[in-house]
UniProtKB/TrEMBL annotation:
Modified residues (N6-(pyridoxal phosphate)lysine): K439
Organism lineage: Eukaryota, Fungi, Dikarya, Ascomycota, Pezizomycotina
GO molecular function, one term: pyridoxal phosphate binding
Binding residues for pyridoxal 5'-phosphate: L300, T301, F328, P329, S330, D331, D413, H416, Y438, W503, N531
Designated name of the protein: Kynureninase
Domain of life: Eukaryota
Cellular component, GO annotation: cytoplasm
Bias type Basic and acidic residues, positions: 16-26
EC number, UniProt record: 3.7.1.3
Subcellular location field: Cytoplasm
Keywords: Cytoplasm, Hydrolase, Pyridine nucleotide biosynthesis, Pyridoxal phosphate
InterPro entries in alphabetical order: Aminotrans_V_dom (IPR000192), Kynureninase (IPR010111), PyrdxlP-dep_Trfase (IPR015424), PyrdxlP-dep_Trfase_major (IPR015421), PyrdxlP-dep_Trfase_small (IPR015422)
Subunit structure: Homodimer.
Protein purpose: Catalyzes the cleavage of L-kynurenine (L-Kyn) and L-3-hydroxykynurenine (L-3OHKyn) into anthranilic acid (AA) and 3-hydroxyanthranilic acid (3-OHAA), respectively.
The gene coding this protein: BNA5
Length: 680
């Protein structure tokens, strides 16, 4: 076997009936399976296994491949089950994924003991990966398969509250008990929750609302009551400490002037000169990076451009950019304008489109096959970690790996993912990523953003001597495109990835010497341009300090629970006491559908609700008059996001009550008769 370690055959643990039927055999390394956490998992026997091994050996030389798992993708359930088994055993997997045209590849292989034809299947087209190679044939004749490393990122998770009867689930008592058992409930007090009155009036500070609701009835009973704020996916709430931190910043500026840049103050924050370093550690934890791989700077769209200036380097053969069809407009414009900047036509922008307008879900198969289809001419893939509209959490690890196998650089817009779902940007080998700090990060409207550059792209090497032939190519970038193109022993400039530069990206020790020699700080900091707004940095620091009170894992645990609760409550529409299944048995269906993936592993905190047509305006007005804050995406979608840092189960309970009442009133008024539409 290519991994070249002693092995012993073992049978799978739980759930191996299906494996046995499919001819699965699981092998573990004998040299301490627990310690090494490696597994070799092959399907079928004889020819199939030999073929798979041969493909892997030729293509990857066995290097870094610890396991092979042939997954029958046409039956997703089974693929999930297999991966989950492996995860529960704490096992790292590499996956060679193959699809069969008819979904029967594994069984055929097991029964007939013959090598299958590997087909990568998509809803639209199938592309052959080709038949098994005869020995000795060069591997370049194979199209690369999708390969996953590391543990499965997207297991199929259960619907947590499915079995609880509606009477119990929909009671106030249930929400209260959930809040009592919520280990993070005290974090809510770290935030300023606007009152209903605050939201309604036009002045600063609290005041009673004079607003009337759409049906001219009594509005919210008590203006001093906390609003139901489920809009952290757009603008997060203000941490209480933000005001204190900003006051300190103002005091420092008022009392120290320019010395505030340099002076260590008692009980103060980091001198402004070092404020970028002070926020690295906590940021790195949130996105799963090394501190040197992240920097807080500029804003999201600006950062995407800066990163593309470095990572999108089109050539005659490879010049396309692939984005998703429903990309956030700013990303779309950014990608298009990058093409124009390089004198390339708009047709070089390839979009991964949802299968149908009413179903925004992008399956891995669809994403990977679109990328594969354009691989030969693609330079860059730019995708969202979480899709802003549907709330779908993309499989960053899988897609990144797929792109890398095809020689494509891939960047991620993490606007809706950062602070929302656990990320492992370093381990997932992500090339670059950018995000904003005003959504789940709670840094304040339009506050400074952040970016990630993988360690391998941020290296800065000392000037090479001319005879050092390796040094003329750094991280795949030709020295001819870098500012330091003429490398000689007298040239003081180091080698680094080309970029658009500014003085704040240059080494702190020489930054103020004004010598006009750019010496990039290794890592992401070397991508900085200007001195950052200390006011913005202070706000981000306050929000990061709230995150420091917990961990992304703890937040995710709560998020999974509270979002599942929201989903389950929305699915129980019936006025009567039936449970969720009763809806299928003739009880009226709700006048809305949920377009966010039902698998909790494939979403963050947001549930997008597609209302029947023409209901949105009425529903929104009705719920806003009662102190609910969610956001709308015309024509028919409401996005509802319980942020685990500050939202309670009580919030969700109150929201669903008001929202469903609004829907009933809308139906009574005669709206909501047609199916809803999502953005065209
Ligand atoms: C996915 C996504 N990308 C880009 C942006 C634009 O961000 P900014 O205005 O901070 O550049 C946003 C939000 O506004 C967003 O949600
Ligand atoms: N920054 C804003 C300013 C005003 C209104 C909305 C935003 C948003 O951020 C929208 C968000 N990106 C979205 O997913 O819709």
């Amino acid at each position: 076997m290519s991994i070249g370690v002693p092995e012993e055959s073992v049978r799978a643990g739980s759930g191996d009936g299906e494996r046995r039927r499919a001819g699965f055999e699981v092998r573990r390394r004998a040299d301490g399976a627990r310690k090494s956490r490696y597994i070799d998992c092959c399907c079928g026997d004889g020819a199939v296994v030999r073929y798979a091994r041969e493909v892997v050996r030729r293509r990857f030389g066995g290097v870094g491949l610890d396991a092979i798992l042939l997954v029958r993708r046409a039956r997703r359930q089974e693929a999930h089950m297999l991966d989950e088994d492996a995860i529960s055993g704490g096992i790292a997997l590499c996956t060679l994924q193959c699809w069969s045209g008819n979904g029967l590849m594994m069984q055929d292989a097991a029964r007939h003991r013959r090598p299958p034809t590997f087909i990568q299947q998509t809803p639209k087209r199938a592309c052959h990966l080709g038949p098994p190679l005869p020995p000795g044939q060069p591997s370049s004749s194979l199209s690369p398969p999708a390969v996953r490393t590391g543990s499965r990122a997207m297991p199929k998770l259960e619907r947590l509250f499915q079995r609880i009867g509606s009477e119990e689930l929909c009671s106030e008592e249930f929400a209260r008990k959930e809040d009592e058992r919520d280990a993070l409930r005290d974090l809510r007090s770290e935030f300023v929750i606007p009152t209903k009155g605050d939201l309604g009036n036009k002045r600063y500070g609290p005041a009673r609302t004079n607003r009337t609701d759409v049906s001219n009835e009594q509005t919210a009973s008590d203006d001093s009551e906390e609003s139901i704020y489920l809009c952290g996916n757009s603008l997060g709430l203000q941490p209480r400490r933000t005001r204190d931190y900003i006051n300190k910043y103002l005091d420092t500026w008022a009392s120290k002037g320019v010395f505030g840049h340099f002076k260590e103050l008692e009980d103060g924050h980091a001198p402004w000169l070092h404020i970028d370093d002070a926020v690295k550690g906590p940021t790195a934890k949130i996105v799963g990076a090394l501190p040197s791989e992240v920097v807080i700077m500029e804003t999201l769209t600006a950062n995407l451009h800066l990163l593309m200036a470095s990572f999108y380097r089109p050539t005659k053969d490879r010049y396309k950019i692939i984005i998703e069809g429903k990309a956030f407009p700013s990303d779309h414009y950014a990608a298009l304008s990058q093409l124009a900047h390089h004198d390339l036509p708009p047709s070089a922008l390839i979009t991964i489109d949802p299968p149908s307008p009413s179903s925004p879900y992008l399956s891995n198969e669809h994403i990977l096959s679109t990328i594969s289809q354009h691989a030969a001419s693609t330079a860059l893939v730019l995708l969202p970690g979480i899709q802003f509209y549907s709330g779908q959490f993309l499989d960053i690890e899988l897609i990144t790996h797929h792109c890398h196998l095809l020689g494509i650089t891939v960047g991620w817009d993490l606007a809706h993912a950062v602070g929302n779902v656990p990320l492992k940007l370093h381990d997932w080998n992500v090339d670059f990523a950018a995000w904003c700090n005003y959504k789940y990060m709670n840094g304040g409207p339009g506050v400074i953003g952040g970016l990630f550059v993988h360690e391998r792209h941020g290296k800065v090497r000392p000037t090479a001597l001319p005879q050092d032939s390796e040094a003329v190519h750094i991280n795949g970038a030709s020295s001819g495109t870098s500012s330091n193109s003429t490398s000689t022993s007298t040239n003081p400039e180091p080698h680094y990835r080309p970029r658009l530069s500014g003085w704040w990206g240059s080494d702190k020790r020489s930054r103020f010497r004004m010598e006009n020699v750019f010496v990039p700080i290794p890592g992401a900091s070397g991508f900085q341009l200007s001195n950052p707004s200390a006011l913005d940095m202070t706000a981000v620091q306050a929000s990061l300090d709230v995150f420091e009170l917990t961990s992304m894992d703890a937040l995710r645990a709560k998020s999974l629970r509270i979002t599942a609760y929201l989903e389950e409550r929305l699915l129980r529409w019936s006025d009567t006491d039936g449970d969720a299944d009763a809806n299928a048995g003739g009880v009226p269906k709700p006048p809305y559908t949920l377009i966010t993936p039902p698998n909790p592993a494939e979403r963050g905190a947001q549930i997008s609700v597609l209302l029947h047509h023409d209901m949105l305006d009425f529903v929104l007005e009705f719920i806003e008059a009662r102190g609910v804050v969610v956001d709308e995406r015309k024509p028919d979608v409401l996005r509802v996001a319980p942020a685990p840092l500050y939202n309670s189960f009580g919030d969700v309970h109150r929201f669903v009550g008001i929202f469903q009442e609004a829907c009933r009133r809308a139906l009574e008024k005669g709206t909501g008769k047609g199916e809803g539409r999502i953005e065209e």
